[in-house]
Amino acid sequence: xxxxSPNEKDxxxxxxxFLYFIGDSMKPTIKTGCKxxxxxxxxxxxxxxxxxxxxxxxxxxxxxMLARFTHFxxxxxxxxxxxxxxxxxxxxxxxxxxxxxxxxxxADGFFKKAPFxxxxxxxxxxxxxxxLVGLLYKIKQTLC
Length: 144
Known about the structure:
The structure is a single chain. By secondary structure, the chain is α+β, with helices and mostly antiparallel strands. It has a single domain, classed as Ribbon (Umud Fragment, subunit A). The protein is built from 2 helices and 8 strands; from the N terminus they run αββββββββα. The model has no long low-confidence stretch (mean pLDDT about 85).
């Protein structure tokens, strides 16, 4: 979770900036106190596996995009924290994305730059998962 005012939300979406992360949902990738460099980005350029800043309506959260798909002619994505089980994954409208995490600064001064995969297998998992979810939603849309 990220504590942020409505004015900061607008600024991050338009200009980017730095935010501090609070919580355990993105461990081990991001820990409480990490400073995140956020960039505004065209929504069409955000891909599964990217770590994004999301306006959930109740709070601003930082989670990983697992899949991206069109459902009834509207763009959606599925997100979840790296430390959360798949049952906690949520579907959201693509317009809820405020920006993309480009860099993480840890408390010890260590920096990590995107992409934030532990290995190439992780990236491949997100790609396959994204295609499966998109296919399932297309089948569901056809049947309904």
